């Protein structure tokens, strides 16, 4: 279910900052499961006010420390302002807020990137990973999870099909597509269950949610990587593959492989990653996608339709990737 909106306590919050000024307006600009965002105009300029839903001040402070240190290494980020007490997390009424500089920029997906822009994107993610290796060296985190169990996935498919069958008529086009993809995916899993990858390789610190809506551009140049809520430990090459599968997927579910190749080569150089590491990551992310139904779980278990628009391309990508598996692996490793 969607959560009700909560108006941020702007006046009380600004009292915690020496140089933020007095509020003139506060308009919502983003809403999600992990945070809500507002454009806050004050007598001293514009800011991005972030409300961390279910916020853990310790984890948020860790994200803030990481972005401040990444900025020192030349990574384009937008670290939060510190309050008068030196803290970057403000807790009011049990809710966590952070105040960031406002970044004028726009989001760009892979279709809007040239080949050179694709290379810049890969090099940027490589810089993020090598930078995090330096700034998070004294931080601890859990190991990566095992790969998805196809037996469990098949039970999820049966549950979702049962929920679809129990829905009142008439069904809409999304319901019809969902049923088609669920039955199709069941056949693919039965055919490819033997290809389940082993437990993941040792992980490194990653952004955790690197996609077009978390990267702002000014012109052709990245201006800021935002939303570090999922900062954590994963195999780094898997984040590189996962990001490419979001940036470079077309509306019919095909990856733009020439751009993927340019991106991956730049990433490998910047992160000192070997082709074998990328090949293993391609396999694990393909398997992850083969077993993933998060959009359908949101819709049919939570009655949350915010992600519905992502499903057609994402579900088609799984089928196309399975068919073009060798070509995809070569684009990341060649």
Search tags:
five-stranded antiparallel beta sheet; 334 residues; Phosphorylase Kinase, domain 1; 2 domains; alpha+beta; 11 helices; two-stranded antiparallel sheet; 15% strand; 9 strands; Aminoglycoside 3'-phosphotransferase, Chain: A, domain 2
Q: Give start-end ranges of low-pLDDT stretches.
A: none
Distance between the termini: 44 Å
Q: For the report, how would you describe the main beta sheet?
A: 5 strands, antiparallel
Number of helical segments?
Answer: 11
Give the CATH topology of the largest domain. Answer: Aminoglycoside 3'-phosphotransferase, Chain: A, domain 2
How would you spell out the order of helices and strands? HEEEHEEHHHEEEEHHHHHH
Strand order of the largest sheet: 1-2-3-5-4
Write a concise synopsis of the structure shown.
With 334 residues, the chain is α+β, with helices and mostly antiparallel strands.
């Amino acid at each position: 279910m969607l959560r009700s909106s909560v108006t941020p306590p702007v006046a009380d919050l600004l009292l915690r900052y020496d140089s933020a000024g007095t509020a003139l307006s506060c308009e919502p600009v983003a809403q999600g499961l992990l945070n809500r965002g507002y454009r806050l105009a004050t007598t001293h300029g514009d800011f991005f006010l972030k409300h961390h839903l279910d916020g853990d001040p310790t984890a948020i402070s860790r994200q803030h420390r990481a972005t401040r240190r990444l900025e020192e290494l030349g990574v384009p980020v937008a670290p939060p302002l510190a309050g008068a007490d030196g803290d970057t997390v403000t807790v009011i009424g049990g809710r966590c807020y952070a105040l960031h500089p406002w970044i004028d920029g726009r989001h760009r997906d892979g279709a809007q990137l040239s080949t050179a822009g694709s290379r810049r994107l890969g090099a940027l993610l490589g810089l993020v990973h090598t930078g995090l290796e330096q700034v998070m060296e004294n931080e601890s985190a859990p190991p990566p999870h095992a790969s998805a169990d196809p037996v469990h996935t098949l039970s999820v498919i049966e549950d979702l099909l049962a929920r679809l069958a129990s829905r009142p008529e008439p069904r809409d086009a999304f319901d019809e597509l969902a049923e088609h993809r669920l039955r199709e995916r069941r056949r693919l899993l039965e055919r490819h269950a033997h290809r389940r990858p082993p437990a993941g390789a040792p992980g490194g610190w990653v952004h955790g949610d690197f996609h077009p809506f978390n990267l702002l551009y000014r012109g052709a140049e990245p201006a800021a990587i935002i939303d570090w809520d999922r900062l954590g430990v994963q195999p780094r090459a898997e984040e590189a593959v996962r990001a490419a599968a979001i940036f470079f997927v077309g509306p019919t579910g095909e990856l733009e492989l020439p751009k993927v190749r340019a991106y991956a080569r730049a990433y490998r150089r910047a992160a000192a990653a070997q082709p074998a590491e990328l090949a293993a990551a391609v396999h694990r992310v393909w398997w992850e996608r083969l077993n993933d139904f998060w959009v359908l779980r949101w819709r049919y278990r939570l009655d949350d339709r915010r992600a519905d628009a992502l499903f057609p391309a994402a579900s088609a990508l799984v089928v196309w990737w399975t068919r073009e598996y060798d070509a995809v692996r070569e684009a990341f490793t060649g």
